[in-house]
Fold this sequence. Notes:
Chain A is of the alpha/beta class. Chain A has six helices and ten strands.
Amino acid sequence: MPGADPVFTARQVTKVYDMGEVQVHALRGVDLDLAEGEFVALLGPSGSGKSTLLNILGGLDVPTSGHVVYHGRDLTEAGEAELTAYRRHHVGFVFQFYNLIPSLTASENVALVTEIALEPMEPEEALRLVDLGARLDHFPAQLSGGEQQRVAIARAIAKRPAVLLCDEPTGALDIATGIVVLEALERVNRELGTATAIITHNAAISAMADRVVRLADGRIAGVETNASRRAARELVW
Amino acid sequence: MKGQAAAIAAVIGSGVTMFVTYHSNFDSLRRTQAAYYDRYRFADVFASAKRAPLHLEGRIAAIPGVARVELRVVADVTLDVPGHAEPATGRLISVPAPGRPRLNDLFLRRGRWIEPGRPDEILASEAFALTHGLGPGDQLAAIINGRKRWLTIVGLALSPEYVYVIPPGELIPDDRRFGIFWMERRALASAFDMEGGFNDVALKLMPGASEAEVMARLDALLAPYGALGAQPRRLQMSHWTLDNELLQLRQFGILVPAIFLGIAAFLLNVAMTRTLAVQRPQIAALKALGYTNGEIGWHYVEWAMLIALLGALFGTGLGAWLGEGMIDLYNQYFRFPLLLYRLSGGVALAGFGISLAAGALGASFAVRRAVRIPPAEAMRDEPPARYRRSVVERAWLRGLSSATRMVLRNLERHPLRAAFSVLGIAFAVGILLFGFVFIDAMEHLAEMQFSFAQRQDVTVTFVEPRSSRASDELLALPGVLRVEPMRSVPVRIRFRHRSRRLALTGCPAAPELSRIVDLEGRAVTLPPEGLVASKVLAEALGARPGDRLTVEVLTGARPVREVLLARLVEDAMGISAYMEAGALHRLLREGGSLSGAHLLVDGSRLDDLYRRLKSLPAVAGVSVTAAALASFRRIMAQNFEIITAFNVAFAGVIAFGVVYNTARVSLSERSRELASLRVLGFTIGEISLILLGELALLTVLAIAPGLVIGWALAEWVLLALQSEVYRIPLVLTGQKMAWSALTIIAASAVSGLLVRRKLDHLDLVAVLKTRE
């Protein structure tokens, strides 16, 4: 069960993109907390601001106004070097298109992170967690899409991050493969207690979350707490 | 693409610059030479004798194939130039007055021709006069046949025979200490007891005449009069030097641009291949719309041609500018009435032609490959890159970091591209080293000549060989500490059907002042019997130690003797031969006579000595080692500073071009990976290392082959330059190798860092949102 201490506290976060003549308001004052060990689904149509919010939480972007506090540290006041260190030691990312390094094998892709992290697990251990213990020495081109995404998850969790941020992790996968990937995320959340935020526009996935945050037009349109989480294996879409 | 296009255009431009510079100079020099020779009737055959009667003229003119004959009196004298302490040497050549020489006519730059019946009037070579600030109306003193005579310069002149002038027995020009002077025939003849005679002859041949035949007959005619053997024009010193320079210009004009344009074609190929990969979907769309392969391909080839055109424009402009500068440099050493720079349309056009050809060549391979893919296939993503563990990892290094592995595997994925990049950078190292080799070689030559071989302060040569008493007389001169006698005799050495004419030098078995030194600086001791020949002479004759050579002495009783070739010496002096003085005297059947001597002098009394030497009738020439060294250094410094500057610039362009392009292409291919690493928490410094590590590795790999290329280029060029006149030793110092490597490393670093700055602006989010 998620703990009471918030990992993140986002307050009145806005993000305005200057696109030449027009200004695009991606976020219009978002308040959000993410508790330790919590599994949150961010649901919304494209353009609702969910990716922008995730990027700001992950230190890839800075808000135009408002504050994001991570374990008592205000990320909005952090510089480039501090944000890099934050990503390096505290955040794990999983993207729709895996973003593995094609010239490195599965275990080497994970080792890339473990070589620079503070208290990492062994690459083999991370890959076993996502059921890829048998494919350590395969290059990305030799793995299926689902396998590649699980390598990406292993790479994201090998540093034992406090938070795992996933942007449409099953977006490029079919149902069966997507479920295997979600199972991996579920297991990481359960066994390591990593707070997990997952972006999806697939409402079915939200059933496996503790909480579902709906975004629309840069605002939080609603928050639902699931009384019980459904196992990834049982999801259907 | 702008930066890459500029870098490639710069490499092409450098190649065209070199092409235009070398070929326009070749063109200008050759045209000027041809016009000068033609208008001023430069002779085809030259010969000298001790003293031959003028009535031989008819018989010489009757030799089949001879068109014109010019008989002259030529004599070297010691000069006393006002305001110049050291004695200088002047070569006096007879000319008719009134009238003009039938051959080797003079171009009168200033003043007037000599008036008949004025034995004190001379024309001075322009170079000597300008160096000493002399002009028409000025006077200088010459020791003519024992008497000091004041001569008045009435005009400054140039001769096709002396376009390039070096003092006798030396390696490089020195207009301060050696000049050419022309004097009325009668006056010169009477001064040297040549009335009714001559000691020098020049011939113009009819078209199609056999040079060898004419020379043989001329030698036969002159033999009773102390003939020193006829020489064809191609061995005439000034002409030989000029021709050698022309040959070099043409060779460099092909070799150097070929290197640059080859590298440019490679860079263009890599850049185009990458651009086409990025634009693969657009190409597919165009093809789907019905564009032909030719139309699409031409679009990209045009783009390459534009770069080539840019390079050609820039190169032609810079080449014309440099070419003009080079002509100015030539004007300092080659004396023509008018050597103008001329960039012919042909050369300019050829420059454009070769750069467009390089552009087309570089682009066409990449373009042909890209447009051939069927549209449906091109619209799909490129198949994922296949990687494997690199050879290095498999072989030795297992504990490499992931970043290092990325670098190694990326290089191995395009082995050919990596190899060509290494080769390109290696050429940059090579070109640089090649330039330095010349400096080192000249330094070495100077060191050998002036520190090891010529340890005398002054060398005196006599008008006629003198008895051994002359040695004591020299020792009695002011400041002279030691005298080392020297005997030099003109000979023709034969071995089987080959022969060479040269001065055979006799000296002590182990001379202490003027030593015979090989290229390693080791002094050679002469054997009591037999002859020591330079390796170049032995090669020219096809003789080996132990062979018996025929030595024809060309003076006195002209004895012909068999002499053992005792050993060889590999020195820098071209063809030369030495014998122990006693052995030479026995060969000549004479007592201990000497042709001159090397002197060790108390430095504080040099001026006194010079003053005395200038007035000694027996002295024909005085050469001062320190002055020769100074002029050597002056000329080397002048030339090599310029050459080095350009070498560094052009090698830098290559290194920069190759590294910058490699970096840009690898940034384009790798930006997604690098952005992913940034997201994972890698710092900009860390991802820079991955990008630059690849370049650093390429650069480091290029250094050893680059040094080999530089060495091979130098070896090739020095071999081509090696002649019977001199031989430049190939010297490679660690210092110059280090400088070549470091310069290229610096150029690589600069271009790498320029590209690295782009990493600061990687858009992490955008990269991650898209599929490659």
